[in-house]
Amino acid sequence: MTIAIDFGTSNTVIARWNAATQQPETLSLPGISQQIAKNPPLIPSLAYVEDASVGEVIIGQTVRDRGLDLANDPRFFRSFKRGIGAEIQGFLPELDEKTVTFEQVGEWFLAEIISKLQTQESSDSLFLTVPIDSFEAYRHWLTKVCQSLPVEQVRILDEPTAAALGYAAEGEVLLVIDFGGGTLDLSLVRVDLGAKNQQKPTGFILKWGEKLLGENSNQRPKTARVLAKAGANLGGSDLDNWLVDYFAEKQGLAKSPLTLRLAERLKIKLSSQPQASEIYFNDETLETYELELNRDEFNQILQERQFFDQLDGLMTAVLQQGRRQGIEAADIDAVLLVGGTVQIPAVQDWVEQYDMKRVKCQKPFEAIAHGALQLAQGFQLKDFLYHSYGIRYWNHRQKCHSWHPIVKAGQPYPMLNPVELKLGASVENQPSIELIIGELGAETAATEVYFDGSRLITRTVNTGSTTVQALNDRNGARTIAQLTPLGHPGSDRVKVSFWVDEQRSLRINVEDLLTNETLLNNQIVAELS
Q: What's the whole-model pTM score?
């Protein structure tokens, strides 16, 4: 059985491939899936840690049914996906004499889903999806989690690309707008449904590079080629927090998990009605909360937070990338809306102002999980690297470390031509040469993840500098060459060749120019996103 899991910031979707109908179908797991009219079965991405020492957690709808999401309890976690792989500012809770990280909560959450899934479905193949803007740290965490799961084969792909396959939209060029609880991703995808010819298949699944059609097949594979993509750490949970801040300022409302939940309900109601209200009475404390909001007021809050400016910036980036590939806005055959946040009327109005053809919003929750399953049915992906990668060096002019790009964003893979660098010793009798490789993010902004009371908040901060995550800055990983004889300044000592293989692994060769000896051959130094 082939299973796909779309692990989201607010909700998680599980789907399987039905061999009888040859169609994907969304699964409901008793106890943890919520059933809401007009929505497919969704698992709220919530966790309550009962015993951290043994990893005992309550997840999904059960958390809400027991009211465990309404109190300021350090054992309750929401939006924890956003904290995975990020530097957290603030104190992480210590539960049962153990400091609990978001990575640990995420692992417990997924393991609990797999455990419950296997009680009703036997699965030998699992597909997991990731946001475009995720750094290598998140993908590395997810890969490690996969290794511990009792599943024979696991594959990973980008969420918007999966959504393009999930909608099965007619047309060659598709713009996917994936706006969930934690991230906003835009992706321009060219879909080729394939035809009979004599070509051998090319193209690879994003993570493992496994070919899906036999070498002797005369069927040209169905492919989804990513032409452009842009993403931001912005989602529905940010809008919930903005509403809480609005009511805190307007009514003096306390910021708590309860008021956050009420704000979320208001937001959801405003997707289907022009005005909404939420009333909550606590029969123990006799406190009453009454919140009212209409769409015009909601839109004003979004305007004040530069919400639409951020959306415009991402759309401009994607369209510019597409233009460099010869794709104009008029060439886009359909726009596919994915994620709960795309149901907000203001977001749909924003999309329609670009006057694009055929905007589709029929499968906002299921498209990603359903699309991931298409990979098992003969689809292949051709993709490029979203981030740039570089090596750290000492900038003598500015007297600080800087980064020299070696592989730039937009690079297709596998790379046919390696990038070569020559390096020398910097001090007398140098015994080795170290190289720190980093993943280079946005040049104008960084994302902060921090606690505001009990709330996990992310915000974009303009820094004017490049955001970098080092990939190998740890003992035993930095050294690429042991020098025998010892190195001396004044001449190049080693030649390093970099390239990215079909599985998105950054590999290097290292040659000692003095002894003509190969020191490293085809060595993996990082898994790229």
A: 0.72
